[in-house]
Specification:
Layout: E1 17-19, H1 25-31, E2 37-41, H2 51-59, E3 64-69, H3 82-95, E4 99-103, E5 106-109, E6 112-118, H4 124-141, E7 146-148, H5 163-174, E8 177-181, H6 182-192, H7 196-201, E9 208-213, E10 217-219, E11 222-224, H8 233-246, E12 251-253, H9 262-282
Parallel strand pairs: 1-2, 1-12, 2-3, 3-4, 4-7, 7-8, 8-9, 9-12
Antiparallel strand pairs: 5-6, 10-11
Length: 287
């Protein structure tokens, strides 16, 4: 469990962070780059021991840590997997992260995890289900949860609420925060002909606790949220507009496939840091 002497760190909103991936463990420990925080996929650290957990406990001495879940399935009508939630709660107690987040999607049905972040129909019925699950998760964890807007490759006929309003209402009803994925907003807008700026404008600035940036893959059929390349110029522009509205917010560079050298990832984070510091120097953001 967490050491009594450990004092959890908080991310510096004026400096971006990076996703912590296994190929970078040694290089990160050796170079200790100037990033604000490290984010991991929670499920990769559910074991009660082992080298991955030992590395994470080592890194939390130097960096704030964010736990980002991919399998809680907040939108599933089945209800939350209590075993999964208990394992997450144990990890939270052990690591004492600065941030805890999960995707606003469903991935579980009939007791089976499908291994995909599947989109929700944005309707009153779906909203009620999601809010009940978020309430349950926050009560069990004893912490505020951030929920992330996901990329989607289809839309439901049952959708009656614009996505931005749906995300904002989940935060309003439950008191949770929002993990605002600017890349996902751009991908969805490009694939479905919607307005990314309208989505972002619907989110209450006070609810945003973190931002994600990543690079998508262009295909003949549209954009795929692959997290396997640099952030697109169009996404950087959308991010800069977002930070001008919100002010500095802890920002993470995600890179999960075709993982580059650590220096490449840190350079992307440095670009985000420059945006955050310019906004801070100008005093931008909601009062």
């Amino acid at each position: 469990m967490a050491s009594a002497r450990f004092s959890p760190r908080a991310p510096d909103p004026r400096q971006a962070g990076i996703g912590l991936r296994t190929p970078h463990f040694a290089a990160l420990a050796g170079s200790r780059p100037a990033v604000s925080f490290l984010e991991v996929h929670s499920e990769n650290y559910f074991a009660d021991g082992g080298p991955a957990l030992a590395w994470l406990e080592r890194f939390r001495e130097d960096y704030a840590v964010s736990l980002h879940g991919v399998a809680l399935s907040l939108g599933s009508v089945d209800g939350l997997d209590r075993g999964h939630l208990d394992r997450l709660a144990r990890l939270v107690s052990r690591i004492e992260p600065a941030l805890i987040s999960e995707h606003l999607c469903w991935s579980r049905i009939g007791g089976r995890n499908l291994g995909e972040l599947l989109p929700l129909p944005y309707s009153e019925e779906s909203l009620s289900v999601v809010c009940a699950r978020v309430d349950e998760a926050q009560e069990r964890l004893g912490r505020r949860l951030l929920v992330e807007n996901v990329s989607a490759y289809l839309r439901y006929r049952e959708t009656t609420i614009p996505e931005g309003e749906f995300v904002a209402e989940v935060a309003r009803r439950t008191g949770c925060g929002v993990l605002l994925d600017v890349n996902n907003a751009y991908v969805n807008a490009q694939n479905h002909g919607t307005d990314a700026r309208a989505f972002l404008a619907a989110i209450d600035p006070a609810s945003v606790g973190e931002i994600h940036l990543a690079g998508p893959e262009r295909t003949e059929d549209g954009l795929i949220d692959s997290h396997g390349t640099r952030v697109l110029p169009e996404v950087w522009a959308l991010y800069e507009e977002t930070i001008a509205r919100l002010g500095p917010v802890p920002t993470l560079i995600e890179w999960d496939t075709n993982i580059p050298a650590l220096e490449v990832l840190v350079a992307e984070a440095d670009t985000a840091t420059a945006v955050l510091r310019r906004a801070s120097d100008r005093g931008e953001g909601a009062p």
